[in-house]
Amino acid sequence: MTAARILILDDDADVACAARLLLRRRHPDVTVLDDPADLPALLARAIPDVVLLDFNFTPGRTDGAEGLAALDLLRRQPRAPAVIALTAYADVPLAVEALKRGADDFLTKPWDNARLLAAVDGALARRTCAPAAAATSALMGNSAPMQAVRAMIASVAPTEANVLVLGENGVGKELVARAIHLASRRADNTFLAVDMGALPEATFESELFGHRRGAFTDAKADRPGRFQAARGGTLFLDEIGNMPLAGQAKLLTALERREVTPLGADRPESVDVRIVSATNLDEARLFDPAVFRPDLLFRLNTIVIRVPPLRERRADIPALLRHYLSFYEAQYGRPARALAPAALAALQAHAWPGNVRALRHACERAVILAGGADYEVDDFGLLAPAAPMPTAAVTAATLNTLERDAIAAALAQAQGNISHAAKMLGVSRAALYRKLDKHGI
Ligand SMILES: Nc1ncnc2c1ncn2[C@@H]1O[C@H](COP(=O)(O)OP(=O)(O)OP(=O)(O)O)[C@@H](O)[C@H]1O
Prior knowledge:
The chain has about 450 residues and is of the alpha/beta class. Helix content is about 45%, strand content about 10%. Keywords: ATP-binding, Nucleotide-binding, Phosphoprotein, Transcription, Transcription regulation.
């Protein structure tokens, strides 16, 4: 995962501090704003990649209008950031409204750290997709295999059939899922993607099906699950091949009954969602009952769409290169360059183990680094070896990083509460303050 520019827009200093510490371990560029009035000035300087957005700023306000206004402003930006809605008031209509207005995901406070990291990673990965409205056309490529994929999408979209999308990493499975949603009668409702492999086992049910206040120690308020949030729309279950067997059983029950029971609730709720799922597992693994329950597979794979790897549709490569090179030229304000014929030939012959996602990253790199008149193959960094680090530097840097990570983790776990974090680390508050200074936290 590449480092991203992240903005936390939240007036609760403890919450913002905990999120910043957690995220800064992976993404050095994390900014905090406590007032949406400062957002326009910040956007004029640089547009973040991901925004964690609170919905209520004025004390006592719980209608979410301030957050929704900020969301609309963010969505109007030329390269709109991915938005993760944060709310202390686990409020299904607000979460759904945020998703409808273009938020990528939502989290309720206090969050699970693994879930926050996964939400940011997921939002970043999805952000590399074209905006939802253009998703059908964003699925580029006119090779015969892609034409077949498009024909499948067109015929299954209007039905309510569950669709399983198969293919290697980065082939465009999520774009296919979005295209199905957009061509379906659910297009005006939510499309919600959930990375099933990243859901922590302990919170699997509450993440998917929601919970009631008091269902467990940390359940301070009712909270909707992904199923409720996607009601009327499409739930995209990504990476289903990475789901533990216990999770598979719970998901199967929900799909069989078409209803879910939030943790702590005494009766189930019916949920109207269409399920599109995806995995990069090869079919031999997927059909291995030790890996994936056959009865669940049977529920999910009413229709199977196989998205072929890029090396099996090389005819698509020139158009994808042209598309992403001009996309990044515009994004970075770089001059338009031609692709040297030798470079095109090499790129078309490349195996592309990371498929379209890798091609896209290679184009971004070329646009940033190219210095000549045309793009040359070296600009795409296909074979760039990793530079080794001197051992002494590794040792010092590693110790420093370990200490910093331990502090950041404790603070995040303590939701920014210095006394609690100091206790967890077994140091005094004063010592912790000194260390925070030292590490610039
Ligand atoms: N046919 C295509 N046309 C244009 N862009 C594409 C196409 N296929 C994939 N991409 C781009 O490649 C990236 C990866 O696509 P996507 O996330 O849909 O792949 P995926 O198969 O779901 O990946 P993973 O298995 O890693 O989740 C995205 O940036 C997407 O926009």
